[in-house]
Each structure stands twice: as C-alpha cells, then as structure tokens.
Amino acid sequence: MSKIENEKVPMNSEVLIQLDELEACLKAAGLWQDSPISTEALSSVEPFCCDTMTFEQWLQFVFLNKIRDMVEKGEALPTNMAIAPMAEMVLSDHLYFNAVHQCLKNLDSTFAKEC
Questions:
Q1: Which of 39, 56, 59, 111 gives 20 to 30 Å between its CA and that of 50?
Q2: From CA 49, how far away is CA 44, in angstroms rounded?
Q3: What is the DSSP letter of 94?
Q4: What sign does the CA torsion over 32, 38, 43, 45 have?
C-alpha cells in the first residue's frame, strides 16, 4: 500500500463513522424511510434529486449509499462538499434540525480536509 493510501485509511474510517452517525440521527428524528424508494425517483438528474424525493430521502437513498460505496471501492471521495446549507434550507423547522445539521456540518468539514 502506498503512503497516500495509508493516509486515506483513517479518513475513510472517520467518514464511515460519520455516515453511521448521520443514519442514526435520521432514524432518531423520524426522517428514515423503511420502504425502498422507486427506481424512477432514483433516476433523477437534478441536484439532491429535488424533483423526485425529499432531502432526507436523498440523504438516505443516494448520499449515504454513494459515499459508503466509494469508501468500500477505495475511490477518491469528494473534496468540495456543502450539504449542511441544503439542510438549513429544507429542514430548519424540523424538531431534530440541530442534530441532523451538526452531522452534516461534520461531514462537510471532514471532506474539506481532503483538499
């Protein structure tokens, strides 16, 4: 394993921990959907699939799955990500906004460390 790959292992571990925290937070907030989402909804090309699903559905069915898959495959992770501002726009009135928002801010910060 190269030196660069060695340096990314802790980062990937940190990302996986934060993704698990986000999932737990979404579940605790009642923002987790038990039933699968339709294939049609997943085929959206709009940012955050805003035309076919809610933001929390996008987090669950697109974001979490995509980032976990990238980590598992050893792919380069995004380095310029800002998901927390979207949460501010769509979830600010939710009872558990602060917890979800903090999870997303932590992820944004972790991904920014890659720059």
A1: 111
A2: 5
A3: S
A4: negative
- Burial code (b: 16+ CB inside 10 Å, e: under 16) for 53-92 equals bbbbbbbbbbbbeebeeebeeeeeeeeebebbebbeeebe
Whole-Å CA distances, 16 to 39, 71, 73, 90? 25, 8, 13, 24
Residue pair 64/33 in contact by the 8 Å Cβ criterion: no
Task: Give the predicted TM-score (pTM) of the model.
Answer: 0.86
Q: Is 60 exceeded by the pLDDT of residue 1?
A: no
* Cα torsion through 57, 102, 71, 44, rounded to 10: 30
For 25-72, write each residue's pLDDT tens digit: 999 999 999 999 999 999 999 999 999 999 999 999 999 999 999 999
Q: Which residues contact 115 (CB under 8 A, 6 or more apart)?
A: 79, 80
Q: Do the beta carbons of residue 104 and residue 84 sit within 8 Å?
A: yes
Amino acid at 100: V
